[in-house]
Amino acid sequence: MTRGMAMTVAATVAVVLAMSGLVAASVPLYRAFCEATGIGGQPRQVAATSAVPVGREVTIRFDASVAKGLAWRFAPQVREMTVHLGEDSLAVFTATNLSDHPVTGTAVFNATPDKIGRYVAKIECFCFTEQVLQPGETVHMPVSFVIDPAMAEDPHAGEVGTITLSYTFFRAEAPVTGTGRGRS
Q1: pTM for the predicted model, two decimal places
Q2: Percentage of the chain exceeding pLDDT 70
Q3: What is the bridge-based pairing of β-strands 138-147 and 120-125?
Q4: Is residue 63 domain-shared with residue 96, that is, in the same domain?
Q5: DSSP 8-state class, residue 76
Q6: What is the SS3 assignment for 164?
Q7: Dihedral (C-alpha) 43, 119, 167, 123: value to the nearest 10 degrees?
Q8: Is residue 179 assigned to a domain?
Q9: What's the rounded mean pLDDT across residues 105-133?
Q10: How much of the chain is in helix, strand and coil states, percent to nearest 5?
């Protein structure tokens, strides 16, 4: 092999390894980017609230998907609900492992329209931790959230009447022993 050919092979291998590393890190990097910039309608995590519900209502739609390569069925138990701003609300999703071996998944989430993300506060969510499902196991995973009443005062977000909360499960890279949270 000539020196030029060896350098080309080495450069190609380095590029492939770098791209593989970026793919493996894409979910946590995306999550960190959204949390740092507020882009993508990233809801915030909060402790239980003591906000008083206000009269204004909004419709919350739930979207659930599974990334390619994860043999799970994942769906909200209710596709849509109406909530008052400031009201603690609860939605439940169901996930089933369709494979014949334990699988660990991690969910990413966002809210649309993008300008509404800062007003969606998650109190508890299956998306905060990795979830381990045993072969054929079905679990019910809750999401406790509140829509900040300050949304009604925002001239750019106040007219929003429908919010979509989207969750996508990806296969977690490192297997986790034990079980995830949010089981019932």
Answers
A1: 0.67
A2: 72
A3: antiparallel
A4: yes
A5: E
A6: strand
A7: 70
A8: no
A9: 92
A10: 25, 40, 35
